[in-house]
Amino acid sequence: MFKYILQGAGDINWMATTALVLFFFIFVAGSAWVLTRKKDYVDKVSRLPLDDE
Amino acid sequence: MTQVEQFHYDNKIVKKFAYATMLWGIVGMLVGLIIALQLVFPSLNFDTPFLTFSRLRPLHTNAVIFAFVGNGIFMGVYYSLQRLMKARMFSDLLSNLHFWGWQLIIVSAALTLPFGFTTSGEYAELVWPIDIAITLVWVIFGINMFGTILKRREEHLYVAVWFYIATWITVAVLHIVRNLELPTSGLHSYGIFAGVQEALVQWWYGHNAVAFFLTTPYLGLMYYFMPKAANRPVYSYRLSIVHFWALIFIYIWAGPHHLLYTSLPDWAQSLGMVFSLMLIAPSWGGMINGLLTLRGAWDRVRQDPILKFMVVAVTAYGMSTFEGPMMSIKSFNAVTHYTDWTIAHVHVGALGWNGMLTFGVLYWLIPRIFNTKLHSTNLANVHFWLATLGIIFYAIPLYWGGVTQFLMWRDFTPDGFLVYPNFLETVTQIIPMYALRVLGGTIYLTGVILGVYNLLKTTGSAKCVDNEYAEAPALAQHHVETGVKKHWHSWIERRPMQMLVGSLVLVLIGGMVELFPMWWIDDNVPKIASVKPYTPLELQGRDLYVREGCVGCHSQMIRPFRFETERYGEYSKSGEYVYDRPFLWGSKRTGPDLAREGTGKNKKSDSWHYHHMNDPTSTSPGSIMPAYPWMAEDDLDVSTTAAKISALRKLGTPYDAGYEEIANEDLAKQASAIAKRLKEEGVDQPGVEKKEIVAMIAYLQRLGVDITLEAQAEK
């Protein structure tokens, strides 16, 4: 029944598709960004909380 | 040569927020203890409006979330942000406006909620002027935070700062959308959403208040203070980045898991359930990252109470974020929803994750800003064990009680009748569990009081270093020297903004994809022709129901289970709620569901309601419901009727134009009819037709009636 309600609400499938594509893109891009950081960068940033003493 | 700049960190503002979190922690938990006692000893309601359970419960939740944890967030953010940015806060004036503004909001909450000024949306109960004040103070906090980030001396934004930025922007969005409302008077308003749509907005908000107020800022604190306390960097910085993006994207979708088996459309329920299950991955990534930060330092956990507090906090985070997704599975949610299981669940989060982390941070931070040693490590250890035991004694009885009550609700005789048709039997059965919960809460609060004593002894013997000297190279010179980036300036200034926009886009996607279809299909929620707007008297009665906080214990949402329809009647349909502002589905049944209270086998006489509200035990021996005798004494305020009718018509309720002019005439007629029936039934109270109780009776007798009219029409 809700399928018809959603159809009646106009074409909103693009929202679901966009959300999925964006989520996938952000997850892949985020992981890629994280994995391509150089080790010395990661080490430096991860030590930031310990820097101020 | 790098030019080193000298500056001072503002510890005074950190100290203020630290004192505030201690104070409101005790107050909030004390109110929690009082209402827990009221469930065991109902006489402790003292027949006094502002001491009544149903009015105090929202005070407890608001005090713990926004006062205790809120000030805890600001304490940790103001301490860590300055150090991570190597800069003093942007503006001392804004810091102080933020502090005093927030305390003023808390005090105004304490002066409104117990006196019945509430909108009744869970964790969004505050009335509209306070909502505006919250918005203003939040903007002040935002300007102060971003100002500090923009004038920083450290190029990189550590992951904790990411969490703070996402927290700020998401809470802003949630607060504004949830509190879109139309005032009818200085302290009363109707929300622009109604019924099933409001339910979805409420739990999109409510769930993400947990996510972005109780979780993401505290994760930021975990990523800063746990490495500090352990004196080693976070286990995997890479994992923390994935944790961040995955968590904020997935969290925002999970709200509908609060509405499983309700009349929310199935697609939204399924969406909420799937995203809730996915949440295990980032949540546990964060927990593992926190715990593994202690790799090689576990021997120190044995001696250092700060690390003990943090380990239990992160473990509690892991437990709640495993339990939460499990509770979002529909078949398991059928067990936990409406029962004390949910109460146990939230307290593992609040007492374990938020409470233990707050005190871990306090024990670490207070000696540092006072440049002294903690007064007593032994006492901190005692606090730790009291807190841990307190959580266990709090949670286990309620898990037990929740499952017991559910099993009693659904127990059928071989002939197919309910074994416990009287709801009250399922409540009195678990009162011993409520008593044990009081014990758990008492143990926990004792620990908190010892902790605060210990911290105050620490601060009493030293002076706070209000302005802590620090030095760091200026960012510009630093970059020229190291030659990292020539055109760093615009890029650096953009980055926090990019972070802000990125977080905003992510949470908006989740929010809008869920909410828009529900808003757009407004006319397509299956309408029920026989469902009509409330009469003026019923409307006033409904607002009394809101004022007294009845929704804290009584749901108005019958799930499509045989054990529910057998007990309460036909399951609830979304079309029944189109005129409900606010929606009153509730999320906990300490008393029975009331969706069909005015019809079928649940219908009671007017006099039954009259006596029951005056003294619940007179009609239901053993009831733990508070008495509401003032409703029979106080006159109903009918001066508000016209404004309420007008506001509702503006929002779409089909009252005829000009009806507000004559609404009070209809109100008086209906009130007289009820007074007449009361008299016939033996209630001889002169002038009862003018009293609040009559409006309350009118509302309760209306519940569930409309849908039965349709069934009769069909016949």
Describe the protein.
The complex is a heterodimer of chains A (53) and B (715). Chain A is mainly α and 53 residues long. Chain A has 3 helices and no strands. The longest helix of chain A is centred in the middle third of the chain and has 24 residues, at 13-36. The radius of gyration of chain A is 21 Å and the shape is elongated. Chain B is mainly alpha-helical and 715 residues long. Chain B has 2 domains: 8-480 and 487-512, Cytochrome c oxidase-like, subunit I domain (Cytochrome C Oxidase, Chain A), CATH 1.20.210; 536-714, Cytochrome Bc1 Complex, Chain D, domain 2, CATH 1.10.760. Chain A binds chain B through residues 1-2, 5-6, 8-10, 12, 15-16, 18-19, 22-23, 26-27, 30-31, 33-35, 37, 42-50, 52, and chain B through 80, 83-84, 86, 154, 156, 158-160, 223-225, 227-228, 231-234, 237-238, 241-242, 245-246, 249, 265-267, 470, 506, 509-510, 512-513, 516-517, 520-521, 524-526.
Write the layout of secondary structure elements.
The complex is a heterodimer of chains A (53) and B (715).
Chain A: H1 2-8, H2 13-36, H3 39-46
Chain B: E1 4-10, H1 11-40, H2 53-85, H3 92-112, H4 128-150, H5 159-178, E2 181-185, E3 188-191, H6 195-230, H7 237-251, H8 266-278, H9 280-292, H10 298-303, H11 305-327, H12 330-336, H13 340-369, H14 377-409, H15 423-428, H16 431-460, E4 467-473, H17 475-482, H18 488-520, H19 536-548, H20 562-568, H21 606-614, H22 616-619, H23 630-633, H24 641-650, H25 659-680, H26 692-702, H27 705-714
Antiparallel strand pairs in B: 1-4, 2-3
Helix pairs in contact in B: 1-2, 1-3, 1-13, 1-16, 2-3, 2-6, 2-13, 3-4, 4-5, 5-6, 5-7, 5-18, 6-11, 6-13, 6-18, 7-9, 7-18, 9-11, 11-13, 11-14, 13-14, 13-16, 14-16, 19-26, 21-26, 24-25, 25-26
